[in-house]
Design brief:
The chain has 275 residues and is α/β, with parallel strands linked by helices. It contains nine helices and twelve strands. The structure holds adenosine-5'-triphosphate and magnesium ion. Residues 29, 31, 36, 38, 56, 58-64, 216 line the site of adenosine-5'-triphosphate (ATP).
């Protein structure tokens, strides 16, 4: 596999620095009933500011991969480097790396008794930012994710898409250099999902964050990714890495372009071949 810096320098563009490196990463879960090799031998280099989609069937280890990157589950083998520093020392995570991390899960997981503003500001409060700084940042973020005017609302008063945007704003509050998203739009209707895809692209471009985005939706994976990593199950391994050479910003209409169709078809065939 060609590393990002090699890929870029081959095109004459300035070399991109490496943000994340996975070297021979594996994860085995042991319970009383079973041993599951969830992931095996995952090698992947992700450039700073790159947007990587991860796709694969249910149970192929996508969430496990993201949880290891998020410092929630330790790898059983291999190494994960963030800007060249080891993320894990055995089962202990390097917490200095955690401070620049934003995570969005499939469920928004908001605090129902907190307003939108307080939900967004929670990581800032935990890190000790003062009230004025928090208010300023919440106003910026509410604007960024299209929730201006809803700062005082409570989660129950929002639609699913709006709640997910609150979760995104909360993840962005600390200005993460690394954003990890696990099927964040799985429960949304097709139109809201398209809108959220555009929003995530816009946010990624505006903040320059490196993004790892897990999905089982082929169109979404190609639309958002600079590359799509295809995982196969039992054990989860990288089957293929598909570069998406489509210019940004991409609009929804790009999905009807022939080059987009070719990539979607290739990925769909590869996923079907697993059977
Ligand atoms: N905490 C755990 N204990 C035991 N086994 C686990 C645990 N977490 C995940 N697994 C197993 O690891 C494998 C990968 O699970 P994972 O949740 O990473 O898959 P996934 O690709 O995210 O699936 P989905 O698309 O359904 O979300 C599965 O076989 C699952 O049963
Ligand atoms: Mg999952």
């Amino acid at each position: 596999m060609t590393s990002v810096s090699e890929r870029e320098s081959a095109t004459g563009a300035p070399p991109v620095t490496t943000k994340l490196e996975l070297k021979g990463v594996g994860k085995e879960f042991r319970t009383k009933r079973a041993h599951t090799q969830a992931l095996s031998d995952v090698d992947l280099t992700i450039g700073d500011g790159e947007f990587v989609s991860v796709i694969g069937r249910s149970g192929c280890g996508k969430t496990t991969l993201l949880r290891m990157l998020a410092g929630l589950v330790s790898p059983s083998s291999g190494e994960i480097l963030v800007e060249g520093r080891s993320l894990w020392h055995g089962s202990t995570v390097d917490s200095s790396v955690m401070s620049e991390l934003g995570v969005v899960f499939q469920e928004a997981n908001l605090f129902p008794w907190y307003s939108v503003a307080d939900n967004i500001a929670l990581p800032l409060k935990l890190r000790g930012d003062g009230r004025a700084a928090r208010q300023e940042r919440v106003a910026e973020l509410a604007d960024l994710v299209g929730l201006k005017g809803f700062e005082k609302a409570y989660p129950r008063e929002l639609s699913g898409g709006m709640r997910q945007r609150v979760a995104i704003a909360r993840a962005l509050s600390i200005g993460p250099k690394l954003l990890l998203m696990d099927e964040p739009f799985g429960a949304l209707d097709a139109l809201t999902r398209e809108r959220m895809n555009l929003e995530v692209q816009r946010i990624a471009l505006a903040t320059g964050a490196t993004v790892v985005f897990v999905t089982h939706d082929i169109t979404e994976a190609v639309f958002l990714g600079d590359r799509v990593v295809h995982l196969t199950p039992r054990p989860g391994r990288i089957q293929q890495i598909l570069p998406v050479g489509i210019e940004r910003p991409r609009d929804i209409d790009v999905q009807t372009e022939p080059e987009f169709g070719v990539l979607v078809r290739e990925l769909r065939h590869a996923l079907h071949e697993e059977e």
